[in-house]
Amino acid sequence: MTTIGFIGSGHIGGTVARLAVAAGYDVVLSNSRGPETLKDLVDELGAKARAATPAEAAAAGDLVVVSVPLKAYDRVPVEPLGGKPVLDTNNYYPERDGRFPRLDDASATSSELLQEHLPAAKVVKVFNNIFFKHLTALARPAGAADRTALPIAGDDTAAKETVTAFLDAIGFDAVDAGPLAESWRLQPGTPVYGAPYGGGANFWDSPGVPADAATIRTALSAATR
Ligand SMILES: NC(=O)c1ccc[n+]([C@@H]2O[C@H](COP(=O)([O-])OP(=O)(O)OC[C@H]3O[C@@H](n4cnc5c(N)ncnc54)[C@H](OP(=O)(O)O)[C@@H]3O)[C@@H](O)[C@H]2O)c1
């Protein structure tokens, strides 16, 4: 059975973990404060979930979700992630993360920084552009008429196929946005960031608006740097 590891189990990591358990995956959760602080989430998720250290979660996962504030990206364990698909949910918010000159001058994307930190891993950017409440609300079975698509970006074709299959299992279609160098197209401030799923002015209170693959492709194409 496929196990999903989590480095970071907050709003978005916890949401992906709930969707993964609902789809039948085992999950191993971690955070910065220690496994004992994840007891409530583990209890909620039941027998398919356990908590561990970040290094243990990285080692246990066949796929590993990294969902920490970007400022913590260089504390993600390196060695146990070698060769694995790493699902990068992270976004750059300078007011939270401090200044990263290579992101400010657009000479790198935030996912390229994580890939540099994890040279033997296969980083795929995903889940970064959707508010966690909309992610919860918009999961649908394969074939549903109102299924939502999420953009993914990565340099490794096989890892993107693995992530596409994972998304399908938890309730979403995938749209390939290209390599990590193109992942600026789904970073904060772009047309695909949040808005397609959020109902305009009512974004934060929106129950979630399904957005199909064509909508997501159009939004990615409209991005400017
Ligand atoms: N919130 C959203 O709707 C949303 C949507 C898409 C993308 N994102 C992005 O996804 C990332 C996570 O966002 P979030 O809203 O889920 O944040 P969050 O609720 O604050 O959760 C962050 C998680 O990361 C953990 N963490 C922090 N430093 C760590 C470290 N060095 N090692 C291991 N775990 C560490 C935290 O553990 P402790 O609590 O123990 O410190 C916590 O479990 C951010 O980059 C955010 O911009 C968020």
Layout: helices, strands, pairs:
Layout: E1 3-7, H1 11-22, E2 26-29, H2 39-45, E3 49-51, H3 54-60, E4 63-66, E5 85-88, H4 94-97, H5 101-104, H6 110-117, E6 122-125, H7 132-138, E7 149-154, H8 157-170, E8 173-176, H9 213-221
Parallel strand pairs: 1-2, 1-4, 2-3, 4-5, 5-6, 7-8
Antiparallel strand pairs: 6-7
The chain binds NADP nicotinamide-adenine-dinucleotide phosphate.
Structural features, described:
The chain is of the alpha/beta class. It has one domain: NAD(P)-binding Rossmann-like Domain (Rossmann fold), CATH 3.40.50.720. It contains 9 helices and 8 strands. It has helices at residues 11-22, 39-45, 54-60, 94-97, 101-104, 110-117, 132-138, 157-170, 213-221; strands at residues 3-7, 26-29, 49-51, 63-66, 85-88, 122-125, 149-154, 173-176. It has an 8-stranded mixed β-sheet, sandwiched between helices. NADP nicotinamide-adenine-dinucleotide phosphate binds at residues 7-13, 30-33, 37, 54, 67-70, 72, 75, 89-91, 127-128, 131-132. Residues 7-13, 30-33, 37, 54, 67-70, 72, 75, 89-91, 127-128, 131-132 line the site of NADP nicotinamide-adenine-dinucleotide phosphate.
Helix content: 25-40%
The CATH topology, please?
Answer: Rossmann fold
Question: What is the residue-mean pLDDT, rounded to a whole number?
Answer: 98
Shape: globular
Bound molecules: NADP nicotinamide-adenine-dinucleotide phosphate
Secondary-structure content class = alpha/beta
Total number of helices: 9
Number of strands: 8
Q: Could you give a short account of the major beta sheet?
A: 8 strands, mixed
Query: Considering the protein shown, what is the CATH homologous superfamily?
Result: NAD(P)-binding Rossmann-like Domain
Alpha carbon gyration radius: 16 Å
CATH architecture: 3-Layer(aba) Sandwich
Residue ranges: pLDDT <50 for 5 or more in a row? none
Strand-and-helix sequence, N→C?
A: EHEHEHEEHHHEHEHEH
Number of domain modules: 1
Q: DSSP strand (E) fraction?
A: 15-25%
Cα separation of the termini: 41 Å
For the record, the CATH class is Alpha Beta
